[in-house]
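Memo to structure team: turn this sequence into structure tokens by end of day. - J.P.
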Amino acid sequence: MTNKELYYANEDILYIVENVKSIGWNSIKEQSIQRIVYLSKVLYTFTHSGKNIFDYYHFSPSLYGPFSGLIENSIIFLKSSMFLSDTEDGAIKFCHKNTLIDKNIEKENWIKTIILILGKYGENKIFGFTINDPLYKEAVENNQIRELNTSSPENKTVKVLHEFKQTFEETIENTLSINAEEYIDLYFEYVFSQIIQK
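Reply from structure team:
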């Protein structure tokens, strides 16, 4: 972990903690932050070509879902720096908002999209999607502790997402007329309404 990676993670986590308020949360568990960042990275690989803007995160499987040591270290740093604090129920909230961190609009818009999907379908459904993610599931079943390959378009999760892509895109008149954020929102609407049973 480099200082630059920690800086980027701090930026992302502060943005997440601030913006979960848009879905009615006043605080957030570390586990939920791990899942949001994991989904942000995997779904970015699915919808974008080229370098993944979340490439500095490296996830390994745990019993509670995908885990990144960088996220854990960032949360510790942000608490010790008094940007974040613990709530009585073990969640995390803002101490103050006077941050000196620069904003990255592309990352913020993408994370905001993932948070809105979380608010729309609920954490349990999104968590179910994460746990049933073939990449994660295979690693847990085989008791692998090595890093999950979340950036490659060849990984199992992205391949499964692509299996639904053709039938999904048949429901849209013109995919070129929508941006990546709108695309992923419509994609999940399709997946949850047509494929994943309630």
